[in-house]
Specification:
3 helices, S-adenosylmethionine decarboxylase, alpha+beta
């Protein structure tokens, strides 16, 4: 008797078994960023989040606000000028820098006057992942305060840094309102 008739029905039955799929290792998920609390302290004449560190630069008026939990540094500059013409030129220079940092990505600009009568501009551009939040403020007389939040890291995506961007935006809005 031939073996063929016996093997064929066994192959069909083996293919019809109800097997459960094998477990496979799952890719490691990205950890979710937790929102740091909105509590503030005064440092270098501005209000900064208690979870942030302030590092003074080598030049007066230059300092960084560092958020270690988010791997972000806000480069800040407080500039004093001697004339309205110099102030206008400095503002134009900073506005051009804001546009370049955004690299043409769509964003949202919030303009307001602080409690201390400073004209403020907060620009949020989530698609510009490396520099998603920037600001500019002036007392309209002789001082200009500007800064850019800079994320460092590899392979950053807008949705990955979105929680940190919202916290940075919240904190900068508070800081600017208090100028």
């Amino acid at each position: 008797m031939s073996r063929f008739p016996l093997i064929f029905p066994l192959m069909i039955l083996a293919g019809c078994t109800n097997k459960q799929p094998q477990s496979v290792p799952r890719p490691q998920a990205w950890p979710r960023l937790t929102e740091i609390p909105a509590s503030y302290r005064a440092e270098n004449g501005v209000m900064v989040n208690d979870s942030a560190m302030v590092i003074n630069g080598e030049t007066e008026g230059w300092f960084d606000i560092v958020y270690p939990a988010y791997n972000v540094k806000i480069n800040c500059t407080m500039t004093s000028v001697g004339s309205p013409t110099e102030l206008r030129e400095a503002i134009d220079n900073r506005l051009e820098r804001l546009e370049r940092n955004a690299a043409g990505a769509p964003g949202e600009m919030t303009e307001f006057t602080s409690d201390g009568n400073w004209g403020c501009l907060l620009m949020t551009t989530p698609a510009a992942v490396a520099t998603p939040v920037q600001f500019l403020a002036t007392d309209s007389i002789s001082r200009l305060f500007s800064g850019t939040a800079v994320f460092s890291g590899k392979d950053m995506k807008a949705d990955s840094v979105a929680p940190a961007v919202s916290v940075i935006e919240r904190d900068l809005l508070y800081m600017l309102k208090e100028l």
